[in-house]
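Hi R.,

Quick one: here's the Aspartyl/glutamyl-tRNA(Asn/Gln) amidotransferase subunit C sequence you asked about.
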Amino acid sequence: MSISEQEVRHVAHLARLQLTEAQLRQMTGQLDTILSYVDKLSELDTEGVAPTTHALAASNAFREDRVAPSLPRQEALANAPQHNDESFIVPRVI
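And here's the predicted structure, written out as tokens:
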């Protein structure tokens, strides 16, 4: 598999990356090497191999939810840079 400079330029544009011509040539070569390696992996016979999401067996490490006493409001607000005695005051994010 091969990738062209035009394709790298297009992906860089989508990612809002500004690449110099030298960076573009370097990135094209690096991506071409990666894609060639991935293409080589497709030559492997995977018949009978079960699909997996992880190389190692993993289980969910979450615990069950438990009701527990919470921190009192005044104690939680004690170290806040700004509060109004009810809640934290934070900058508006739009």
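Residues 49 and 55 are 12 Å apart (CA to CA).

Cheers,
M.
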